[in-house]
Design brief:
Structural class: alpha/beta
Radius of gyration: 19 Å
Number of strands: 12
CATH topology of the largest domain: Rossmann fold
CATH class of the largest domain: Alpha Beta
Distance between the termini: 31 Å
């Protein structure tokens, strides 16, 4: 049953992704940027207000890509978009409550910490505000009454990494988790362990303090020379892991989840082996576009199941094509 549901979600994703991107403007305190979409004008539907609230940490470039996708959809759909991020679940929940109080027409939200976020998401639904969930909360979104989920199944993604590492002949993997309590990150490392034929070890670091991240990885590699792979869970941490490996004099190789322009260049240069792409631009785009479709035409996407945006690997075989989009801030 789960496999069939995933297939249905992929079909729904393909149909939705075919919608043409537009070039109209969105709000939220950020100047308009070229998101690479084709010029298709602005929807002639009434302007609506959508709030997007994520668990973005300051400086994490992943969320810039999510936001670019959301803004592209907002431009096309004649949406007044208010994007905000807060790494702490309590602060994120407060932002959602503020959107409820402001009577937003729709809310898109991440649920990286479902126990903390679910009550507020349910409150939005109870207030008659449609909600889409993106990126985190794949096992919790349906119970809130949200109309759709857009993201990767992180357990499946982790299992794909574990299988690849086994094929590559890796023996011991260090999985670097930059935020404790984030269920998506935990699922990634658990998935790696599920399918990897060698041994795995998790290390928790403070993702908002990059010097500390580098020092922690360096120390671990010095303590355990048997580690031959470092798996990061975000592009900035993979690039920091490359520096830590050099500091430690280690021969370990780096693979990662998620990308940014600098990470893509690192794959091209051979300092990072590969990245698992969950298509964050698509997550932001679909989360906004689904709310617009629901409000203006009563549509829903995914048939009650999650709409999957990944995983897919970016490596030396396809990185040059991805680099063109990464330079635009959309991959």
């Amino acid at each position: 049953m789960r496999i069939r549901s995933r297939k249905a979600a992929v079909i729904a994703l393909a149909a939705t992704a075919a919608l043409t991107l537009g070039s109209c403007s969105s709000s939220g305190g950020r100047e308009d940027t070229d998101t690479g979409g084709a010029a298709a004008g602005v929807a002639d539907t009434p302007r609506i207000k959508i709030a997007m609230v994520t668990h973005a940490a300051p400086g994490d470039t992943f969320w810039d890509i999510v936001r670019s996708g959301a803004e592209a959809a907002a431009k096309k759909d004649n949406v007044d978009l208010n994007y905000q991020g807060a790494p702490e679940a309590a602060d994120q929940a407060n932002l959602v409550q503020s959107a409820i109080d402001a009577k937003a027409d729709g809310i898109a939200v991440t649920m990286a910490k479902p126990d903390a976020m679910a009550p507020t998401v349910k409150a939005a639904v109870d207030a008659g505000i449609p909600v889409t969930v993106l990126n985190g909360g794949i096992d919790a979104w349906q119970a809130t009454g949200a109309i759709g989920y857009f993201g990767s199944n992180e357990t499946v993604a982790g299992e794909a990494v574990g299988t690849r590492l086994s094929t590559e002949g890796a023996k011991k993997v260090l999985c670097v988790i930059q935020e404790q309590g984030n269920v998506s990150l935990d699922a990634r490392c658990a998935g790696v362990k599920n399918t990897f034929t060698g041994t795995t070890e998790n290390i928790f670091v403070t993702g908002t303090d990059m010097p500390s991240v580098q020092q922690s990885i360096t120390s671990k590699l010095q303590q355990d020379p048997a580690i031959d792979r470092v798996v990061a869970l975000g592009a900035p941490y993979a690039l920091t892991a490359v520096k830590a490996i050099a500091d430690a004099g280690s021969q370990a190789k780096v693979g990662t989840f998620d990308t940014n322009e600098e990470l893509v260049k690192a794959i091209q240069g051979g300092t990072v082996e590969w990245a698992v792409d969950q298509q964050p631009y698509l997550q932001g785009y679909l989360a906004v576009d689904a709310l617009w479709l629901y409000k203006t035409n009563g549509n829903s996407i995914g048939g009650g199941q999650a709409t999957l945006t990944g995983p897919a690997f970016i490596d030396s075989t396809n990185v040059d094509r991805v680099a063109d989009f990464a330079a635009k801030g959309t991959r």
